[in-house]
Amino acid sequence: MTADAADVPEDVRRQALYPFSELPLPATAKHIPIGGAVQSIIPHPNPQIAFPTTLGFDVASAVEQSRAVAREHGKTIVAWWLGPEYDELAPEFEALGIVNKDAPGFEATENAMVLLSEPAGERPTDVDVHPVESFEEFLGAAAVGQANFGLPPEPEETMRKHYEEYLGERTGESFVAVVDGKVVAGAYAAFGNSGLNLFGGAVLEEMRGRGIYRALMFARWDRAVERGTPALTVQAGKMSMPICERLGFRYVGRARIFVDELT
């Protein structure tokens, strides 16, 4: 933890560093214990996250179980999320051919950051940002995310199922930015007990530099305040980290992604 983050509450810091273990589990996801670790399974084609829950466990055995679970569910990539307290396990994963590198939707290093007050700078007033109001907006936000994060598109029938699940679940909220009737950006906020965790903020390349990302940040901050949990946490990549710093986020540590590509 850096000196300027020393006053960050521990529960907020942990949410930033370990979102997949600290956030409430959506109904569409499941956590499967694999011996000192957990394999998370979600219905989307993203890499499936696995994470340790204790030190000193049998890494090789956990990896073998993780692979079996992933294959059983038709998944081809597992991304192991190793926060700083699990750094010593890295050589064991590397010995198994599991490499610290980028994966679709994730970067090799995810920087945990925290915001405990309103974002810095002026609040954009010329960008229409609001929670998703229709399937068309949900689909538009997904398309922006796919373009930005290299994720494969999904059939419309599958996306409609995801939308119905989203409407019924409400463990988080999707936001869109609309310009001239077109969705040009999307972002998600997961409802944590310690604040909102930000996932998937993405702006179309040709629309960047217009304050859209900042507008999405203000909208999610307002939602955190409305919920009585005035804190934002995020795992920022190389592109978003400098923007988050300008908005007032503080760095509290980093997690590394070790990618296991199943064959």
Question: How would you sum up this structure in a few lines?
Answer:
The protein is α+β, with helices and mostly antiparallel strands. It has helices at 10-17, 19-22, 59-72, 90-95, 135-149, 156-169, 212-226, 240-246; strands at residues 30-33, 37-41, 48-52, 77-82, 99-100, 109-115, 128-131, 172-179, 182-192, 195-203, 232-236, 250-261. It has two domains: 3-110 and 256-261, no CATH class; 128-230, 3-Layer(aba) Sandwich (Aminopeptidase).
Give a structural overview.
By secondary structure, the protein is of the alpha+beta class. It has 2 domains: 3-110 and 256-261, no CATH class; 128-230, Gcn5-related N-acetyltransferase (GNAT) (Aminopeptidase, 3-Layer(aba) Sandwich). Helices cover 32% and strands 30% of the residues. The protein is built from 8 helices and 12 strands. It has helices at 10-17, 19-22, 59-72, 90-95, 135-149, 156-169, 212-226, 240-246, and strands spanning 30-33, 37-41, 48-52, 77-82, 99-100, 109-115, 128-131, 172-179, 182-192, 195-203, 232-236, 250-261. Strands 1, 2, 3, 4, 5, 6, 7, 8, 9, 10, 11 and 12 form a 12-stranded mixed sheet that branches. The radius of gyration is 18 Å and the shape is globular. The mean pLDDT is 93.
